[in-house]
Automatic annotation (TrEMBL):
Residues 172-215 form the Zinc knuckle CX2CX4HX4C domain. It comes from Microthlaspi erraticum. InterPro entries: At4g02000-like (IPR040256), DUF4283 (IPR025558), Zn_knuckle_CX2CX4HX4C (IPR025836). It comes from the Eukaryota. It holds the Pfam family zf-CCHC_4. Residues 1-13 have a biased composition (Gly residues). Residues 41-119 form the DUF4283 domain. Residues 1-20 are annotated as: Disordered. This is DUF4283 domain-containing protein. Signal peptide: none annotated.
Length: 246
C-alpha cells in the first residue's frame, strides 16, 4: 500500500461507529517553495477563548478597526483560527504596532504565518509587562530581563518605565506576582501588570476560559456534590439503623 495505510486494523461493518476507521495518507514529495513564498504577507491568528469569540465578526471588524478593509482579505480556518492576507508589508508593520490584540473582550494570538504543523499554533502573544516592587538598588536591566525570561521570550526592556516586552505562550496561565531573589540572598515580592490585557480566568489565570468554565472550580463543585451524596447516604443509613434499634 504505497499511498495510504489503515490505522487500527479492520473489523466488521457493524463495528464501533464511534471509533470508526482512520486513514494515514502519505503525500509524495513536491516543491512547495513557491506556495510558502505566497504566504509571506499572511498573518495567522487564534481566538484564545473561541467559545466567547465570534470569528466571522472578527474577520469583519478587525480590518475596519485597522482602517485597511480594502487591502486585507480574511478567512476562517476553523477551530477558532483565522488568517489575514495583506497586499503590502507596510500594513503588516503598522498592524503589529497595535499588539497585543483582543476581540470580544478576550485575547487573540496573531503572528506572521510560518509552515508550522503544531495544532496549538499560533498561541504566542506579546505583552508589555510592568514590574512593580523592584528595589531601586536593583533597578537595572539584568533584573528586568531575568524576570521577563521566566515569563517567556524577552523582546525588549524599558528601564525608564520599568517594563519588559515578553512573548508569552497563550496556553500557559498568567503570572501576576513572583518572588525575586538577588545575588545577596535578599528576596522581594514583585507584582506584574500586563498592559492591554483582556479576558482571563480569575481562578487559574488562563486566557482560554472564564471563571464559570474553570476546570479547577468544576472539579471542586463535582467533589462537593460527591461528598454531599456520601454524607446524605451515611445519614440515611444512620437513620435506618436507629429505626431498626427501636
Amino acid at each position: 500500500m504505497d499511498q495510504g495505510g489503515l490505522i487500527g486494523g479492520g473489523g466488521s461493518s457493524n463495528g464501533d461507529k464511534k471509533q470508526g476507521t482512520r486513514l494515514k495518507i502519505t503525500v509524495p514529495k513536491f516543491d512547495n517553495t513557491a506556495l510558502i513564498r505566497g504566504y509571506s504577507r499572511t498573518l495567522i491568528g487564534r481566538c484564545m477563548n473561541p467559545a466567547a469569540q465570534d470569528v466571522q465578526a472578527l474577520l469583519h471588524h478587525m480590518p475596519r478597526f485597522w482602517k485597511m478593509e480594502d487591502r486585507i482579505a480574511g478567512a476562517d480556518l476553523g477551530m477558532g483560527r483565522f488568517q489575514f492576507d495583506f497586499d503590502n508589508e507596510e500594513d503588516i508593520v503598522e498592524v503589529f504596532k497595535l499588539e497585543p490584540f483582543h476581540f470580544d473582550y478576550w485575547m487573540i494570538s496573531l503572528v506572521r504565518w510560518e509552515p508550522v504543523m503544531d495544532p496549538r499554533y499560533p498561541s504566542a502573544i506579546n505583552f508589555w509587562v510592568r514590574m512593580m516592587g523592584i528595589p531601586l538598588h536593583f533597578w537595572a536591566e539584568p533584573t528586568f530581563r531575568s524576570i521577563g525570561e521566566a515569563l517567556g521570550e524577552v523582546l525588549e526592556v524599558d528601564i525608564d518605565v520599568g517594563q519588559v516586552k515578553v512573548c508569552l505562550e497563550g496556553y500557559k496561565p498568567l503570572v501576576f506576582e513572583t518572588t525575586v531573589e538577588f545575588h545577596s540572598g535578599e528576596e522581594t515580592m514583585v507584582n506584574l501588570r500586563y498592559e492591554r490585557l483582556f479576558g482571563y480566568c480569575r481562578e487559574c489565570f488562563s486566557l482560554c476560559h472564564g471563571v464559570l468554565q474553570c476546570p479547577i472550580l468544576r472539579r471542586a463543585r463535582e467533589e462537593r456534590v460527591i461528598r454531599g451524596k456520601k454524607m446524605r447516604s451515611q445519614t440515611e443509613v444512620h437513620i435506618e439503623l436507629q429505626r431498626c434499634c427501636h
